[in-house]
Automatic annotation (TrEMBL):
Protein name listed in UniProt: Sensor histidine kinase inhibitor, KipI family
Any coiled-coil regions, as ranges: none
Species of the source: Pseudorhodobacter antarcticus
The keyword Hydrolase belongs to this UniProt entry's keyword annotation: yes
One Pfam entry name: CT_C_D
UniProt entry tagged with the keyword Hydrolase: yes
Keyword entries, A-Z: ATP-binding, Hydrolase, Nucleotide-binding
Gene Ontology molecular function terms on file: ATP binding; hydrolase activity
Amino acid sequence: MSTAPPPPAPAIKDAANIFALGQDAVLIRFGNGQTSNPEKALQFMGLLTAAHIAGVIEIAPSLASVQIRFAPDRITRAAVITALQTLLQPTTAPQTPPPPNRRWTIPVAFGGPSGPQLTEAATLAGITVARAVADLTHTPLTVLAIGFAPGQPYLGHLPENWGMPRQSALTPNVPAGAIVVAIRQIVLFANPSPTGWRWIGQSAFLPFDPNRRDPFALRPGDSIHFAPVDATTIDTLRANDPNGLGGATWEGAK
């Protein structure tokens, strides 16, 4: 006899809603489901990771939520929800994101054939191309979430004037390593793909490579700095980097 899934827990101080997800997971969603709140999701991921709840086996943030998988033979869903509710109380909720575990520097060529829509994006942002490149290379960026394709990062946030919408039509294809922008966020494409975001730069960095020891290069919460280079440098890095990191370097905890 089948049973109906448990109803979502009530909103906790108007901050979040908790939902049952399958047989071994819980989803905690921040906001009203219409807008994203990746900073809140990252904050809670850090708090939940530090709590070391026995039986929780995976924590995966998105732009608006955090999925928590648990081992049913070690902890019940009710116990997981109780732990989440405790962590969400104002006395324990973090006010700032946790410090990044890793700080990446990724070479990127901006504009020209490497980023044919940079001028359009700069115009929409109300700034010059030179100022656009300065924003892109000096704004602290964080991996907000991994999604859409394996290992593919959503990075943010750019200044408010970069809150441009997506295009009304798709660009048929951008290459792996392309840097695209919309709604104050950047996506670094893991594979060739169509996109509704504006193509502004090119890297030789592959966020996902099944042949690497660690196929997923980036993790939510990593910080990202783009180092400007020319297109020839990107070609050289792509041809001479067997790990697919395109000259990127990182420092911090493994």
